[in-house]
Write a structure and sequence with these properties.
Chains A, B: Keywords: DNA-binding, Transcription, Transcription regulation. The structure is a homodimer of 345-residue chains. In chain A, helix 8 links the parallel strand 3 (128-132) and strand 4 (151-154). Chain A has 345 residues and is an alpha/beta fold. The first copy, chain A, is elongated, with a radius of gyration of 26 Å. Helix content of chain A is 45%, strand content 16%. The interface between A and B is large, with 68 and 68 residues.
């Protein structure tokens, strides 16, 4: 560890400025009631000594940390393997930086660590939290609520206690899925299969519902559960071909699983889109452009979702600061999706 | 934001347990001097009410947060684009989780945000910091020192004030580079070029020094600056071929830039290794195995470096807790490297 010089104290600043300890404290914490010449002297002493106020103490007074926690309910390996999270973080990072708020990403090895995340959130280290990729039965929503930090969710939480009034940013997953499947129907496809996402997440359930809205009498064998990963898409595609060798289209719950499905179709000698049309979800670049053939997909603006989550949270914090009694609760936002046509369908 | 139920207070716990506020405070903060039956009653009340101690207040007493900050001195876009960082974080995450310490990753848009990172570090939110990928003239080392948090660096800092006694974990960059270049010489190559890393980082400078140790009289035109990215490797390779069309080997400062160099060599019709032998640095998988041809490279154990950084920091914190007067300062560690032979050289 770095050998550190002793940190300048509040007392040292007071001595240097020739004022009382209480005066330094008031100036440092932005309090009023100190005459301008004294404020100037304290500020100069703070600068000369390189004094950094202890925010653990300071935050007890000011209650703002200028920091926002981001919690992704996935193991860190998944966070770095799936570009979805990098994109969402990019939007969050831009927005928080624009407001000079520090992005504090709390990484974990998995769900067993969520109690520790809850403790950190409750510990008075951040002004609020952005929580995304929640799974069914995850204790996080309750831990977050118990921690008492203002929170905006990425994706509709949809389960668990106390999330009934949760504020979230989501895409129109069900509507987007409907549009994808209708497009396949319009192409004359009749044996349309669906590779779902992880069904313990609302985004996967909503896309499955959208599929079913259009394929009301679909053969249940045409729906296979995936997990939003390329490997999951490969597994599901093999199972689908085994069950229903005559399928003529696949709607995959995201682009990564669609890329896995495309690999299996090629290995099995099925031409895309001639024999089997394929549609993904996300419009994740460069993935969706680099598949063979390039992927028709349902676009959602992932970076914008991140930006909006951060914006809603910061706006709520500002309102709360103005009116601590009630606190302004912003509304949830559901963003529209767009079908992007490339070669695969 | 989530509408939160009022958080149970210390007073509520005291009332429920039928003890004084001070007793609850002592139990919650792990203090001694409370009789066992009372401790039991307080614990039960804490559990029943779901009481979470306010750590901002608590940490003023206990001085431990069970959280460690990780600062990567790169914009977040780079953090998610270069698998080096994901690997180092994996090692850090495993080690911290094993000690139930929360990994707090502080992301930024760039160097302009480092003052804010310094404020967070100084704010009493973490027990220590792991800082890596430092660049020359970065204010971070000084900010970290001023923040007064125990710190272990990833890679030798090497510049700036106050880092003379810094504790760091590094690889033997210079020795590894020497071994790579000697291998090329052993293959009979004479016109050996070097694509450097970003020369405002010590790892790049050390690898260049290792190259020069062996190629004492090298044509200066055979050294071109890269930046550790595939695109930088492509640019540098094009420049090298323009300057020295007769080169017969390239040592690139990392695998990502080697992958860029390989693409340019293929585009220009040079056979690897017959016409030009190529060696990288890192043994970054799957990159090093998936290049065409697979890459001979200098292996460093990146995940282990992360694990060691975390271990050194935690050990130092424990020693400091035992003997707050002096604090145990662990020593820096430099890990050996190994040449891994594949098809490219």
């Amino acid at each position: 560890m770095t050998e550190t010089a002793p940190r300048p104290t509040l007392e040292a600043v007071a001595a240097r400025a020739g004022v009382s300890r209480a005066t330094v404290s008031r100036v440092v914490n932005g309090g009023d009631g100190v005459r301008e010449p004294l404020v100037e002297r304290v500020r100069r002493a703070v600068e000369e000594l390189g004094y950094v106020p202890n925010q653990a103490a300071r935050s007890l007074v000011t209650k703002r940390h200028d920091a926002v926690a981001v919690v992704i309910a996935e193991p860190e390996t998944r966070v770095f393997a799936d570009p979805f999270f990098a994109l969402q973080l990019r939007g969050i990072s831009k927005e928080l930086t624009a407001h000079d708020s520090q992005l504090v990403l709390l990484l974990t090895e998995g769900r067993a660590d969520h109690a520790r995340v809850g403790r950190y959130l409750a510990g008075g280290h951040v002004d609020g939290a952005l929580v995304f990729s929640l799974h069914l039965d995850d204790p996080l929503p309750e831990l977050v609520q118990r921690a008492g930090v203002p929170t905006v969710f990425g994706g509709r939480p949809g389960w668990g206690d106390g999330t009934g009034s949760a504020v979230y940013v989501d895409s129109d997953n069900r509507g987007g899925a409907r549009e994808a499947v209708r497009h396949l129907v319009g192409l004359g496809r009749r044996r349309i299969a669906h590779i779902t996402g992880a069904l313990d997440q609302t985004s996967a359930v909503d896309r499955l519902d959208g599929f079913r809205d259009v394929m009301v009498d679909a053969d249940p064998g045409l729906v296979v559960e995936g997990d939003f990963t390329p490997a999951g898409g490969e597994r599901a595609m093999r199972e689908l071909l085994g069950r229903c060798p005559d399928l003529d289209a696949v709607f995959a719950a995201n682009d990564l699983s669609a890329s896995g499905a495309l690999r299996v179709l090629r290995d099995e000698g099925r031409r895309v889109p001639d024999d089997v049309a394929v549609i993904g979800f996300d419009d994740m670049l460069p993935v969706a452009e680099q598949t063979d053939p390039p992927l028709t997909t349902v676009r959602q603006d992932i970076e914008e979702m991140g930006r909006l989550m951060a914006r809603l949270l910061l706006r709520g914090l500002d309102r709360r600061a103005e009116d601590p009694g009630v606190g302004g609760v912003p509304s949830s936002v559901v963003l529209p999706t767009t079908l992007v046509r490339r070669a695969s369908a």
